[in-house]
Amino acid sequence: MMNERFAPGRLAAILSLALLCACEIETKTGSNGTGSPPPKVEPSVAAGTLIGTEPFTLGFGSLDGTKAYVRQNESVNLGTDRYRLGMNFEGSGTVTGDLGSAPTALADISVQDAARGELLTIDRIGQRFLVATLTFVVDANTLYDGVAGFGAMSPGMYVEVYGLPTSDLRTLLATRITRTSVDGRTAVAARIDPAATGINIAGISIPGGTGIDFSPVPAGGGTRARVSGAYNALTGAIITERVFLLPDYAPSGGTRVEIEGIALDVAPAGGFRLRTSARDYMVAAGATPSVPIVTGSRVRVVGSASSGQLLVPESITVVPPGQITYRVTGTVTEFTSLASLRVRGEPADLTLAVIRGGNASDIANGKRLSIVGTAGPGALRVSEVTIVP
Predict the structure, then answer these.
(1) End-to-end CA distance of the chain
(2) The pLDDT of residue 145 is above 50
(3) What total number of domains does the chain contain?
(4) pLDDT, tens digit, for every residue of 101-129?
(5) What domain range includes position 372?
(6) Is pLDDT at 139 greater than 70 in this prediction?
(7) Which class for 281: exposed (0-12), middle (13-18), buried (19 or more C-beta within 10 A)?
(8) What is the C-alpha to C-alpha distance for residues 92 and 108, in angstroms, rounded to an integer?
(9) How many CA atoms lie within 13 Å of 225's alpha carbon, on the beta-carbon side?
(10) Residue of 78, 92, 218, 272 with fewest CB within 10 Å of its CB?
(11) Average pLDDT of the chain?
(12) Quick one: pLDDT at residue 25?
């Protein structure tokens, strides 16, 4: 009888213990074992100008390309060692956690110059020059490699130029200019002109495109192409050409984005059109920019894509001329003096730099440095150097 009298109490205790265990198990379900939900893995697209290398960055978060399929101009899968500051960088992948706090793990990367070939004309007063059908405008953030600034450029030179398209798709803000060898060939990477008969890229006629050379063929490609060959300025055509279809990193709805471009058609409410090499986006009003945006501003938008053409910003940064801080980590090569050396391939002048982690006499070929500086005529003007152990 005593067992029968206490059975309900025991049953209640057992049920309470079972419920407690169930709660504990449920708390851990779908978590990382700490009771907190695991960080979300979200698709991500990054596009803009490199302002940092090792790690790569466009200015907001770090970009990890160690496992990415890599393209650069007409080459594939040669690694990222030749990526330099000021180059136009595009990539897609995933981010685990908050964009900016966690690195974006890229699966596919493409770096394309806008033009490579003979410098045809130069306008000293207007700070602009012409390669093929593209006009490039320089500013205080333009980086130079192999030529001591805009004043040292002259017609007949062969240059490789990276840039951001402005309101006129054939006029670009030059972000990096590298002097190259004279080989008689011209290359242009641009949108395919939609109204042209046949293939027409940036006003250049392609008499008979030889096909697509990238393998695998970029998914979703078709809006942009790269053409190279012998350019005839009189006829506006490239002959003995090669045509490369370029990848299209159009973000789908919900994709996290960091995209740099030129602001156009700025509305009073704050929305605007963002022009990039690949496409024009509409940026919704809402986020407060770092400084007021006007048409022609160079801006970086961080947020999410509502669709392939509409961006919902969380932050907008206006990049004023002369105020980009570039960062590089890498090995010293071609050292002759503190005024003339390269760090991870970047020409650098350390004459006025504050040196940490050692002395000026420690800097030599083979040393690893982290440097911070701004664009200068022919080299990065470095303000800070850290000698990496």
Answers:
(1) 80
(2) yes
(3) 2
(4) 888 999 999 999 999 999 999 999 999 99
(5) 326-388
(6) yes
(7) buried
(8) 6
(9) 24
(10) 78
(11) 86
(12) 39
Structure tokens at 15: 């049920």
DSSP annotation of 199 reads: E
Are residues 378 and 333 both part of a single domain?
yes
Give the residue from 318, 337, 372 where a domain finishes.
318
Q: Look at 257 and 243; give whichever has higher pLDDT.
A: 257
Taking the C-alpha atoms of residue 348 and residue 340, their distance in angstroms, rounded to an integer, is 6
Same domain, 312 and 339: no
DSSP string, 11-33: HHHHHHHHHHHHHHHHHHTTS-S
Question: Over the stretch 74-102, which tens digit does the pLDDT of each residue have?
Answer: 888 888 999 999 999 999 999 988 887 88
What CATH number should be reported for the domain holding residue 268?
2.40.50.430
The DSSP 8-state label assigned to residue 350 in this structure reads -
Does residue 66 lie within any of the structural domains? no
The stretches of the chain forming alpha helices (DSSP H) are 2-28
Which of these three, 275, 296, 318, is where a domain ends? 318
Amino acid at 188: V
Q: Are residues 264 and 285 in the same domain?
A: yes
Do residues 313 and 333 share a domain? no
Do 330 and 379 share a structural domain?
A: yes
